[in-house]
Amino acid sequence: MNYSIIDHDSDLTIGYCNEIVGLSGKIYEDEDHLYHKIQCKQFVFCNAFKEYLIRKKQSMNRSVYVCILDNDKNPMGSYTFIIYDEIYYHKIGFPEDFLDIQFTGSLESFANRTEIEIWNKWRISPPVHINEWAILDVPGRRAWLKAVKNYNLTTREWNSSSEKENFFLDGTYVTDYPSFFCAMGEAINGPGGYFGFDLPSLDDCLFGGFGTTGPFTLTWKNYGVARKYLDKHSWRKQVNYRRRFINKLVYEPEFYFEERANRPLIEALVETLEYRGVKIVFD
Questions:
Q1: Cβ contacts of residue 154 below 8 Å, gap of 6+?
Q2: What is the pLDDT of residue 156?
């Protein structure tokens, strides 16, 4: 089984399936009601969750985590999904094993085809070399960065007291917004590493808890590449991408910060790093 669904409240595994269709976030409309749909292929309910529903006399209406499983069946990433369906299986009976089951609800984040392909690759082995993302186009790099964030926050035990004082950022392929954060994560935490996915989260990581805490020295190799490409236009492209993402949500997030993109992106990145005590050596 490649996926599991875990109940948020009880932390019980609801069940397992081989494939999930619908994580891309397509919006459906029924009268004035907007929703997403996911279809779980060859789904199997877990007995412990069946017993839980029978005991609690609850419907399937709940918050769950749709988990990507590695080859050892351990979660390596997850997507929050709010199930809307008021299905009372303790009344109507549970479906047979290995049937396709569909749920309607609301996804809080999405996984496109490229992101799913990245997860399928990481089932075999997570990244072992830096810059494995460099062959991807900009949408592919965004997918890689999303998977990196998800994977690291799911599987990694963070060391906030690293004594390392010198880090090296390979800027050879830093030609767009997501590629800086791919490279920065690997500079701090190695291949497939995470150290923020946008300016606010970079600032948050610099406070500590994600591999290191400033002050430290960052040697930025091939800095000229970023200086050439990370201009105001590349920043605006990312802002527009974020707006399209928000438009795919059923409900807008309660708190949403939009970056201003009113100057070259490289200036904002350098300013954020230096403000938190990072000494940058431009190479």
A1: 75, 76, 77, 78
A2: 85
Q: Nearest Cα to 21, choosing from 128, 102, 133, 85? A: 102
User: Is pLDDT of 160 > 60?
Assistant: no
Q: Do 108 and 79 touch, CB atoms closer than 8 A?
A: yes
| End-to-end C-alpha distance for the chain, whole angstroms | 47
Q: List all residues 6 or more positions away from 198 whose beta carbon is below 8 Å from its beta carbon.
A: 181, 238, 259
Alpha carbon separation from 217 to 266, 277, 279 (Å, rounded): 18, 9, 5
Write the DSSP assignment of 46-98 as a string of letters.
-HHHHHHHHHHT--S-EEEEEEEE-TTS-EEEEEEEEE-----HHHH-PPPTT
- Is residue 199 classed as helix, strand or coil in its secondary structure? helix
The pTM of this model reads 0.93
